[in-house]
């Protein structure tokens, strides 16, 4: 396709995709299937790859992410981002209403809104395009998180309609819907990583990630609640909300315009109970004077507007008795203390157990068996114990001594510097760890041996038929048949499932090994980058650190894992059984050796490719990607915002610096 036609096609596709995006994420009324949507997007991305110069900053392809932010720039806010003053009681709300009345007289209205519990964001639009997204920071200046925010589907990249001022700012909240949060947290725990404490931490952590593709995957949401700008001429806040809704912003569907404080109190009462049914977390409600001219009369104090106030709900809390504490041993040996509670009803479910996280947490609360404790429910799947009602403490209680040996294998527990968690170091022989590893290995996202559940694994371990994952491949139907609850058919099924797993692609095999911190995404990344287990096992610290999202902890975990004799033996044995330890020839097609013997450092942000794609291209063409500049570096490929220190060093060592285009020409891609 020639460039002119491509340009028109890209324009048409972009409009179409953004319209569907709006229907899906803002209106929640999709008119095409996800499959059809993905096809349109794929088509756009293919065209843009062919003509990278035609990629616009508001292209829907930006939502997929890929660009890396090494450092978030600091931006001064045009209007300071101040917060609201909080109220906690009906009395305080009535006082607020009195103050408003004294200043503006008897005629005024309020807009009641939910107070979303997320991260405040300022979105700047110029000539209808999103140009900058900035966090609150200290209120005066915040971080530029534009690349990451562009992946959030409910943030318009381009304004709909034509009646918008040249420059304006829309403020809102970036938050994580509960369903997605729970799913991702469950995955995290599965990978042996500590789960996020709550959706708000999750949202703020995600916004600060370097890899925007990962941000895109996490599916944050945005709701807008405030319009600002010199040329905005709208008289009422409620109208502003309706206007920005027309422009394509997602505005909360729970906003309510009320005539007086009674209306506000009704709204407060309604959400006091109904808030637990929402698909996201709120920590209160926000009340705003509707008239903009009255807002101006009321003005601001040094810290907050006088025309708005937040009302904070007490977190939902019940009291119950702590009966005992038990300790669970995870796949990676981490010990989790669990409170066994006298059953109690909380937000519609009966709570019997709650995580106590770690020893520090227990000590901090000075919790004792027999104590009456407070149990709260937040965004977490499991409720948490937040404190002790000391007044109700029975006589003769004792401080809780955290266990010092593993409850399962009686090995002395260890606690490493700076880590709140106790770990059973007997990874080799501790039964729940062995079982956990095998369960992880056969799991759906790993080797996907469906015929094999937790009970079967338990049974095989009990009969000494397996000791680690590789033993699965020695099993015969004859060995399984005589076991409890087994028969000819079920045994044959199990063997067939194990056999079928031999074609599992390398990236999933790598995930299946259960190396600490190596989740699904990272396993994929490592497989793509290193191509084979051999190459990955040979990689040194510096090479590993060159992989985006791999820091010292993860690189260290990989090196430690491969250093271990037993792990090496396990890998060798699996390899001998025919498990895939390299990407297949099909996946490797298109490889050349144009860059053979040359090493590359890449730095900055690229326009046509993500950082990972650049590294992929280097390796697909026989070159080597390294993390830092040294005299052995052959070339530096520099994108935008390359760090000055690197550039300086490159100059000093006389290393040629290539632009993205020059590099593409080098591998004959343009
Ligand atoms: S209005 C000047 N409305 O709560 C007006 N804030 O301390 C400023 N928030 O930082 C904010 N939902 O992050 C407003 N419907 C809503 C809100 C909301 C959540 C957050 C916001 C702000 C904090 C108030």
Task: State the shape.
Answer: globular
Low-confidence stretches: none
Architecture of the largest domain, according to CATH? 2-Layer Sandwich
Integer tally of domains: 6
The bound ligands are: 2-(butylsulfanyl)adenosine
Class derived from helix and strand content:
alpha+beta
CATH fold title of the largest domain: D-amino Acid Aminotransferase, Chain A, domain 1
How would you sum up the major sheet? 5 strands, mixed
Radius of gyration: 29 Å
Overall pLDDT: 91
Distance between the termini: 15 Å
Strand residue content: 15-25%
Q: What is the number of beta strands?
A: 20
Q: Largest beta sheet: what is the strand line-up?
A: 2-11-10-3-9
**Oligomer designation:** single chain
How would you describe what is shown here?
The protein is α+β, with helices and mostly antiparallel strands and 670 residues long. The chain folds into six domains: 62 residues, Helix Hairpins, CATH 1.10.287; 227 residues, D-amino Acid Aminotransferase, Chain A, domain 1; 76 residues, OB fold (Dihydrolipoamide Acetyltransferase, E2P) (Beta Barrel), CATH 2.40.50.140; 73 residues, DNA polymerase, domain 1 (Orthogonal Bundle), CATH 1.10.150.20; 83 residues, Orthogonal Bundle (DNA polymerase, domain 1); 70 residues, BRCT domain (Rossmann fold, 3-Layer(aba) Sandwich). It has 25 helices and 20 strands. A five-stranded mixed sheet has the order 2-11-10-3-9. Helix 24 links the parallel strand 19 and strand 20. The longest helix has 24 residues. It starts with a helix and ends with a helix. Bound molecules: 2-(butylsulfanyl)adenosine (IVH). The site of 2-(butylsulfanyl)adenosine (IVH) has 13 residues, from strand 3, strand 8 and strand 11.
């Amino acid at each position: 396709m020639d460039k002119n036609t491509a340009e028109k096609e890209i324009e048409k596709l972009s409009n179409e995709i953004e319209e569907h995006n709006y229907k899906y994420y803002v209106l929640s009324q999709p008119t095409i299937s996800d499959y059809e949507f993905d096809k349109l997007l794929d088509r756009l991305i293919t065209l843009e790859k062919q003509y990278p110069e035609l990629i616009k900053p508001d292209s829907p392809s930006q939502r997929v992410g890929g660009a890396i932010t090494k450092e978030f720039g600091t931006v001064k806010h045009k209007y300071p981002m101040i917060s609201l003053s909080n109220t906690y009681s009906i009395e305080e709300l009535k006082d607020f209403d009195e103050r408003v009345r004294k200043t503006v007289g008897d005629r005024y209205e309020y807009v009641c809104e939910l107070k979303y519990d997320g991260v405040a964001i300022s979105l700047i639009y110029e000539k209808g395009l999103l140009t900058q997204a900035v966090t609150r920071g200290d209120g005066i200046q915040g971080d530029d998180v534009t690349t990451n925010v562009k992946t959030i589907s409910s943030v318009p990249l381009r304004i709909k309609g034509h009646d918008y001022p040249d420059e304006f700012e829309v403020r809102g909240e970036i938050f994580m819907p509960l369903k997605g949060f729970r799913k991702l947290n469950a995955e995290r725990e599965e990978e042996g990583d500590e789960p996020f404490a709550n959706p708000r931490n999750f949202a703020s952590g995600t916004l600060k990630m370097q890899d925007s593709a990962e941000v895109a995957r996490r599916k944050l949401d945005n709701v807008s609640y405030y319009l600002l700008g010199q040329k905005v001429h709208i008289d009422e806040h409620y109208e502003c909300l309706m206007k920005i809704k027309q422009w394509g912003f997602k505005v909360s569907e729970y906003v309510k315009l009320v005539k007086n404080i009674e209306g506000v109190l009704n709204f407060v009462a309604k959400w006091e109970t109904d808030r637990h049914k929402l698909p996201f977390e709120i920590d209160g409600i926000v009340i705003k004077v509707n008239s903009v001219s009255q807002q101006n009369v009321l003005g601001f104090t040094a810290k907050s507007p006088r025309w708005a106030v937040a009302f904070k709900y007490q977190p939902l809390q019940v009291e119950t008795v702590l009966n005992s504490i038990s300790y669970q041993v995870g796949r990676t040996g981490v010990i989790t203390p669990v409170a066994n509670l006298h059953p109690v009803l909380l937000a519609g479910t009966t709570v019997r157990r709650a995580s106590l996280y770690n020893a520090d947490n227990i000590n901090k609360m000075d919790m004792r068996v027999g104590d009456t404790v407070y149990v709260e429910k937040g965004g977490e799947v499991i409720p948490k114990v937040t404190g002790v009602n000391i007044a109700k403490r029975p006589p003769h209680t004792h401080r809780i001594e955290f266990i010092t040996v593993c409850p399962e294998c009686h090995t002395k527990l260890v606690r490493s510097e700076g880590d709140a968690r106790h770990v059973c170091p007997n990874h080799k022989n501790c039964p729940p760890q062995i079982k956990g590893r095998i369960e992880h290995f056969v799991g759906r996202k790993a080797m996907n041996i469906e015929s094999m559940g937790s009970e079967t694994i338990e049974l095989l371990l009990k009969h000494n038929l397996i000791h680690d994952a590789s033993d699965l491949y020695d099993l015969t139907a004859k060995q399984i048949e005589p076991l409890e609850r087994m028969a000819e058919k079920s045994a044959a099924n199990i063997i067939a499932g194990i056999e079928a797993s031999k074609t599992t692609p390398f990236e999933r095999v790598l995930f299946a090994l259960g190396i600490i911190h190596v989740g699904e995404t990272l396993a994929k990344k490592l497989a793509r980058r290193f191509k084979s287990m051999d190459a990955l096992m040979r990689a040194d610290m510096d090479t590993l650190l060159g992989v985006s999202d791999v820091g010292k902890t993860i690189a260290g975990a990989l090196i430690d894992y491969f250093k271990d004799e037993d792990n090496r033996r396990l890998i060798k044995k699996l390899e001998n059984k025919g498990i895939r330890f390299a990407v297949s020839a099909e996946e490797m097609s298109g490889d050349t050796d144009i860059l053979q013997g040359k090493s590359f450092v890449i730095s900055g942000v690229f326009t046509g490719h993500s950082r990972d794609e650049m590294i992929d291209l280097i390796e697909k063409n026989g070159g080597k990607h390294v993390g830092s500049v040294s005299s052995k570096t052959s070339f530096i490929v520099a994108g935008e915002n390359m760090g000055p220190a690197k550039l300086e060093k490159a100059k000093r060592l006389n290393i040629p610096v290539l632009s993205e285009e020059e590099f593409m020409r080098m591998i004959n891609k343009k």
